[in-house]
Amino acid sequence: MGLAAAALSARAQTPSPLAEWQYSAGVPLMKLYEAKVPDWQVQVGAAASVRPYYEGTQRYHVLAGPSFDIRYRDLFFVSTGEGIGVNLLRADHWRAGVAIGYNLGRRMADDPGRLNGLGNINFAVETKLFGEYVVSASFPLVVRIDVRRSLGGTDGWIGDIGAYLPLPGSSESFFWFAGPTVTFGDARYMSRWFGVTSAQATRSGYPQYKADAGLKSYGVGISAIWFFREHWFVTGDVAVGQLAGSAAHSPITQKATNTVVDLSLHYQY
């Protein structure tokens, strides 16, 4: 049974209240608590998530599909959560690396009453730099920092600072984590998601609005995993995110507080 299983869920890598650390919860703790990390770690399954169509909306939908996480020697990984990446630098208490993921963007068809005239934010490949540090085995606080850049879509930068801890009640077959996160965006990212240009104002009826770089949101999340048989386990995630600053005050934003819940079933080889 591996802590890496907690990295699995139903989430697509697109803006949502889910904290960035929840994509890899438990992974950096494996080297502290397991005598030997296996060369190959493979988990496959299916998952479903209830989440907002986009940040700031009142409309929710169900996103379902396959979920998997494949890791080789704490070096390479391919995951529906973390993307395709490599740990370039690593030790017992930390890792740092690069990854490629994706951002599903935002379509006017998702909420025509609110988004008509704003145009689509297209699907984009997303590059990521990340680092994680575990304080100690006796105090297993994990701190994670990452920076991401969309190649297309917004063509902007976004970054997260988060932390989490295993919660009391964790055992060999059940463990759960909780922690906060804060997210920042550059001017290009914030303007594309939350700003309204003069042309968009004319088409949509919204007032022109400038979304500044800086704090985008903050939130808290809980992730859990339960091995109910030797190779079978379920995972669950809950997160609440609060838009802040320019994002919260944007005329596009209907609801500044959003929630996401997901559940998955997996088999670990």
UniProtKB/TrEMBL annotation:
<dbReference type="Pfam" id="PF06629">
    <property type="entry name" value="MipA"/>
</dbReference>
<keyword id="KW-0472">Membrane</keyword>
<comment type="similarity">
    <text>Belongs to the MipA/OmpV family.</text>
</comment>
<dbReference type="GO" id="GO:0009279">
    <property type="term" value="C:cell outer membrane"/>
</dbReference>
<protein>
    <recommendedName>
        <fullName>MltA-interacting MipA</fullName>
    </recommendedName>
</protein>
<dbReference type="InterPro" id="IPR010583">
    <property type="entry name" value="MipA"/>
</dbReference>
<keyword id="KW-0732">Signal</keyword>
<keyword id="KW-0998">Cell outer membrane</keyword>
